[in-house]
Amino acid sequence: MSDFSQEADWLRRVDGIRQHTRRADGGQRAPNKPLLLLYALALLQNDHTSVIVYNDTYHKKMENLLSAFGRPQDAQQPQLAFRYMTSNQEINRLWQVDTNKGADIEAFQSGTEYSGFKLKKLEAVGRLPASDEAMLLERPDLIRVTARRLLDKNWPPSLHADICDRLGLTLDLSPQAIMEDMQLSAELAALTSCEDSSDDQQDSRQRRDPAFRKLVLRAYEYKCAICKWDGRMGTGGTVALEAAHLRWHSSGGPDEPSNGLALCSIHHKLLDFGVLGLTVERRVLVSQDFVGGETTKRVTALSGKPLEDTQLPEHTPDEDHILWHEREVFKGPARPFV
User: What is the residue range of 142's domain?
Assistant: First the structure.
């Protein structure tokens, strides 16, 4: 095996990014830093530099990304990751910030909080450490591996292509490319001694229960729990029918039927985007922010619709998972029930 010590150290620091914060009622998503890193990786891939100037353009673009793929909240704060991904410990440094106002640079290392306005006024510039940037430019496969790990640890697979498209990040999503990147990822993880190389922190694609899909589809009698779609291709099985997680697998959601919904591919995507949600009474929520033309009325008309029942009572969606999705994913407020 090649000497991957620098690459392994890079992956150790990336895996050390906080995935969520602890709450008494379940983990709170923390996607700000992963999105910033993905932004920097896209810049490396396209412009061969990770330098980001904190200006109005960056602030607005990151604000939009957080609105689409972050936690539902009234005000997104792109400046937090830009500032707080810096570290006083050189060994763990993953991001560095400089300014064109030399007297203020010490404040970034002392923990002073800055607003987006302040960062723009200071002409703040962030980037990956130069040695990491050089390594990644020489190893485009490591850019892909890093991006996949960030995506797997923070979002469901249904959103990966959308995030990459919005960032301009190119990933080969073919099964062969994914397997090759997973192999390199495993080799690098084996070289690290950090907790993220333990069995319970392996790539989420390796930890999924293959029985989950079958159990969830069977629980809903192989039809969408929202629209009853049950399309089949001859004797080849269901088409565009998927097993969705309420509490995302990347956020500790279990591969159990009570955390799953059988959904057509459209409603699965809308659930993960936060367009759709559920009440604890198992009625469909539709976000007021979801708008469009005539075809979208098929979605808005779902507001208040009862979810299809499961065959067995114990497979009914668990209230805790429903509430997690409403708090961490659903982009409320909800439309009035039809």
Answer: 5-206
